[in-house]
Amino acid sequence: MFDQLTVVNHPLIQHKLGIMRDDQTGPKEFRELLKEITLLLTYEATRHIPTYDKEIKTPLVKMVGQCIEDKKVTVVPILRAGLGMVEGVLSLMPNASVGYIGIYRDPDTIQPVEYYSKLPSVDENTQLFVLDPMLATGVSSSWALKVVKKAGAKQISLMCLIAAPEGVRFIEKNHPDVKIFTAALDERLNDHAYIIPGLGDAGDRLYRTK
Prior knowledge:
It catalyses: UMP + diphosphate = 5-phospho-alpha-D-ribose 1-diphosphate + uracil. InterPro entries: PRTase-like, PRTase_dom, Upp_B, UPRT, UPRTase/APRTase. Uracil binds at residues 195, 200-202. The structure is a single chain. This protein has helices at 11-21, 27-45, 83-90, 139-150, 165-174, 202-207, and strands at 5-7, 51-57, 62-68, 73-79, 97-98, 100-105, 112-118, 127-131, 134-135, 155-163, 179-185, 188-189, 195-196. By secondary structure, it is of the alpha/beta class. The strands form three sheets. Strands 1, 4, 5, 6, 7, 8, 9, 10 and 11 form a nine-stranded mixed sheet that branches. A two-stranded antiparallel sheet has the order 2-3. A two-stranded antiparallel sheet has the order 12-13. β6 and β7 form a beta hairpin. α1 (11-21) runs antiparallel to α2 (27-45) and α2 (27-45) crosses α3 (83-90). The longest helix has 19 residues, at 27-45. The model has no long low-confidence stretch (mean pLDDT 94).
């Protein structure tokens, strides 16, 4: 259906996502589950990362092991909900750099408004992951992808918890070179551009702001 989309349909992910969707799940458990699901998504989203040879010595013999250069990895959460995904990625790649892009969606126009951007040095060899739990219209994520491309990133993946078909379609149209990894592809957007069935506003649920 979508060329650049990978839905990581693992039983552990679907179990944890079902708990997150429940409106009775509080912020503490919501944060913990988001971290855990992000860790599992990261496993799949990093399959393409190149490795290099390193000579090591086991208790028995010398051998050549495989390593990744996680210092060449950059993680960029979209504030504020994307912050909930950072720890899950860093638990697997602790030497990765972290940048931040602040974007909110204007409630009247549904257009992105950028209010903050701070990125580490990136280039064409950087493995860059943009984090945004809810890929709804795709407008905010698309804007963030423009920002990291302008900074010099070429190898970019977008990781999200839940995606709507409209958002995936928008990203593929505007950024056909970006791979998308999600735990679920939901049905559609409602009239207020919220994902159905979704889980509500991820930022509000993370930080109990509503």
